[in-house]
Amino acid sequence: MTEQLTEQTATAAASGNSATERFLEKGVGADSSTERVDMLASELVGAVHDIIRRHKVTYAEYDALKAWLIQVGLDGEWPLFLDVWIEHVVEEVANESREGTAGSIEGPYYVPDSPKLPAEATLPMRDDEPGTPLLFQGQVTSTTGQPLAGAHVEMWHADDYGYYSQYAPGLPEWNLRGTVVADDQGHFTIRTIQPAPYQIPHDGACGKLISAAGWHAWRPAHLHLKVSAAGHQLITSQLYFAGGDYVDNDIAQAVKPDLVLHPTPAGSGNGNEVTYNFVLDPA
Ligand code: MBD
Ligand code: FE
């Protein structure tokens, strides 16, 4: 008898490999000049040399590093490693001159082309989806205050156990993923469940680093979003929950004060509700 695969038997390697495929396709467009590649690669390698000299890194440590880097690849964890420890600074630099709503990292588990839903919608979920209901509503406007009719609010997030559909077995394909199309005033209302704090996969190479360094593997509970409208810059962001565990101690360092929600008990008596508005810069 074969054991039934469920989200809770997911391995880091299984979720890493599906992310790896997508990022291989995405990584072809940088077009950097020879001079720029020379500068960036030389400075990166030089920074490593400097660390080795300053800390008198031993051969045993060099061999451990080599084995670990090989293992990151074998485990399919390059997307995880890069998005947890590096992406937040790339996001900071990319969006430093934008005026609208703050961005945050995309992370490894975005899937494009999620089902399109009307302005008032419930994200696809199982009949018995566990967790606290969340009503998330707001308006999309431009930095000049114009409502952005038909803006797209793409949301994806983990379930109550911390698993993302398409990156763990046993979940419906588009569970807790959807593209909500705002109404002619840019308004949207999304019903979902409140995600729980989340441990990044830690049974692979990233987990080995985390335990060897005495770190923790947690991210605060978060909603992922991409908000877009014609003629405006797309925002990739995340939203967090005030008072939640790890909001002040995110392993991915992707929390910003403006991105922390303050939900209140829902008027319906079932779960929580919160309003958050998005402001998009012109393209
Ligand atoms: C996640 O869900 C995530 O958002 C990031 C940035 C890294 C790992 C898992
Ligand atoms: Fe996430």
TrEMBL record:
Intradiol ring-cleavage dioxygenases domain segment(s): 136-164
Record keyword Oxidoreductase present: yes
Any one Gene Ontology BP term: catechol-containing compound metabolic process
InterPro entries for the chain: 1_2-CTD_multi_dom, Catechol_dOase_N, Cchol_dOase_actb, Intradiol_dOase_C, Intradiol_dOase_core, Intradiol_RC_Dioxygenase
UniProt-recorded Gene Ontology molecular function terms: catechol 1,2-dioxygenase activity; ferric iron binding
Highest taxon above the source species: Bacteria
Cofactor(s) recorded in Swiss-Prot or TrEMBL: Fe(3+)
Metal-binding listed as a keyword: yes
Keyword terms, alphabetized: Dioxygenase, Iron, Metal-binding, Oxidoreductase
Record family assignment: Belongs to the intradiol ring-cleavage dioxygenase family.
Protein name (database record): Catechol 1,2-dioxygenase
Species, as recorded: Halopolyspora algeriensis
